[in-house]
Amino acid sequence: xxxxxxxxxxxxxxxxxxxxxxxxxxxxxxxxxxxxxxxxxxxxxxxxxxxxxxxxxxxxxxxxxxxxxxxxxxxxxxxxxxxxxxxxxxxxxxxxxxxxxxxxxxxxxxxxxxxxxxxxxxxxxxxxxxxxxxxxxxxxxxxxxxxxxxxxxxxxxxxxxxxxxxxxxxxxxxxxxxxxxxxxxxxxxxxxxxxxxxxxxxxxxxxxxxxxxxxxxxxxxxxxxxxxxxxxxxxxxxxxxxxxxxxxxxxxxxxxxxxxxxxxxxxxxxxxxxxxxxxxxxxxxxxxxxxxxxxxxxxxxxxxxxxxxxxxx
Length: 313
Fold this sequence. Notes:
The protein has about 325 residues and is of the alpha/beta class. Helices cover about 35% and strands about 20% of the residues.
């Protein structure tokens, strides 16, 4: 079972990283050694994660990926992994003089993660990617993006989407304090987590009431639709006409939360692209996000649509 999405209807613009993941009790302090109990590599990058999340709940070749890799083994692995997920990869550009992005991730036994990324080829200011995106715009029904690539590339692609009345989901991560609110207001939906919301509003989120205050402030600043993801506490939605706390989906065991937010954004985008109404799309994304933390890895942790439906039922 899949969402009813058409070919190349979901465009994902973002980074591809190879994740080097270590599981341990806690990260080491300066000058200290902490021994972990598990190490593995896994394809990641917020853009890549969101693309796989969307692809696993959608029809074949519904997702097109736009981004960069280096001319190295990691780049080939990252590209092939997306291909195996039936994602359209022809719009991934290879930079010969750059290494592919990597992220060194420490995942604690409690399920928290500490991400340290070196973006490599993802940082290239290659505006030819904008032209490639523009050529594929007619089939696109939604754009999912983040703050991973060069700011001008992301702005230009969002501008093209706006000109063509295509909804934009923007995950404001990694948070960049040099970005003004005009940038965030370009998006139809933003999906910050508690930390990103705090950076954007100055409000530390410790409960649902804090999330409400933060969302109210973001909408007052011109954000069209704000969805603050709250991990085990669900999500808080706010726009000018409606607000709601969406309840979490309870799970038994957390293995790794490294890509939970990406699961949410990718599944939300796929649901909206299929024509699902917003409240149902948010609920589906919350369940998918929760299921992702029950597995190790980033892209590998993304649930299938049947898994989400079975969990809901």
